[in-house]
Every structure is written in C-alpha cells, then in structure tokens.
Design goal:
Elements lengths: L1 E4 L6 H10 L12 E5 L4 E7 L5 E6 L5 H15 L3 H7 L11 E7 L4 H7 L3 E11 L2 E9 L24 H6 L12 H7 L1
Parallel strand pairs: 4-5, 5-6
Antiparallel strand pairs: 1-6, 2-3, 3-4, 6-7
Helix pairs in contact: 2-4
Length: 194
C-alpha cells in the first residue's frame, strides 16, 4: 500500500537520502553524489552531475524556508563553479565538465510567489511529494515551470520502489478520494502524467 507523507515529517537526512535515490527524476546521474558538502558558509545538500557532465547543486527547502533555499542554491552555485576544474583534476573518473557550468535545483513542497520569482535567476524548482511503500520512503518529483527558465523541461517520475498505477490513481496517492483538480498542478505538470 502506498501512503502519502508530509515532507515536514521526514528528518533532513531521510529526505536527502530519498532525493539522492531520485536523482534520475531530476535529470541527474545516480552513480555519484556528494552529500552535505560544506560550500558557501553552509552545507550543500547534494552535489551531483547530469549524464553530460554538468555539475548540479541540490538544496532541500524546509516548509516556510523556500525563499532562503533559492538564495542558498544561487550562493552555492557561485561557490562551486570556480572549483570544478580542480575537482576534475583530482577526480577525473567523476566526468565533470566545468565548461558546462553548474545547475542549481531546489526541492521542496510548495513554493510561494517570492520563491518562484527569485528562481527566475536560474534556479530550477522541483515540487516533491513523499510516499511510503513497504516501509521505504520514495519521492514523486515534478518540475515547476513558470515560464522561460533554465535547461530541462518539466519532468515527473515515479517514487523509488512504488508504482503509481493508472493515471486516475494519482490523486488517491496524495489524498484518499481527492481529485486531480485538488492537486493544484499546472497544465504543464498535468501533461506529464498523461
């Protein structure tokens, strides 16, 4: 049985582990990631790379801290970018390509208008829904797309270890008896589930 969990119910480390398992949903390679790496005066939740070698910083947004997470993601991207050439020299097996720059992603629940506006500076916002299946926590991730923005098109994926079944079952995963309209998905996000 799949049961929804509020993101706030997850400890930060459990959420970070779930996001790490869900890196492919974010368009990132899952063969390597650094966790809780000290960056610009604060830890970067995850540093990973996409299949083409572009580095990415992933910050997790606690409820009510979404705007701060966007600002921190921008700071961490600026901190990481000049270090990539050294990282590539120290660990060529990581296949980082510094010339591609750094993606900045923030994963959270709801993003208020101020966080969405700030993300226009080149931060990808990803809405997460936590699900428990057979005692394991997985995430359903969907890109929030408020118009022209960086790199990847909106994507959605399946939680790790849990199939969602047919399209109509999606609403019941979030709230028993809930309708698709109550999920608050944008038209672009709805198309991802078609």
């Amino acid at each position: 049985m799949i049961e929804p969990l509020p993101l706030a119910a997850l400890e930060p480390e459990a959420l970070r582990r779930a996001v790490r398992r869900a890196l492919p949903q974010l368009g990132l390679a899952d063969d390597w990631a650094a966790e809780a790496l000290l960056g610009a005066e604060a830890p970067i939740d995850l540093v990973a790379r996409d299949p083409g070698g572009r580095a990415a910083v992933v910050q997790l947004a606690a409820p009510g801290e979404e705007l701060a997470a966007v600002a921190l993601a921008l700071a961490q991207r600026a901190w990481l970018e000049p270090r990539l050439a050294d990282w590539r020299q120290l660990a060529p097996e990581r296949r980082l390509r510094p010339e591609l720059g750094v993606r900045a992603l923030v994963v959270g629940g709801e993003f208020p208008a101020a966080a969405r506006a700030a993300a226009g500076a080149g931060v990808e916002l990803w809405r997460a829904a936590a699900l428990r299946h057979d005692g394991q926590v997985g995430l359903l991730l969907a890109r929030i797309d408020d118009g022209p923005g960086p790199a990847a098109p909106p994507r959605a994926g399946r939680p790790n270890g849990a199939g969602l079944g047919p399209r109509g079952a999606l609403a019941s995963v979030f709230r028993p008896g809930g309708s698709e309209d109550e999920l608050g998905l944008s038209p672009a996000e709805r198309r991802e589930f078609d």
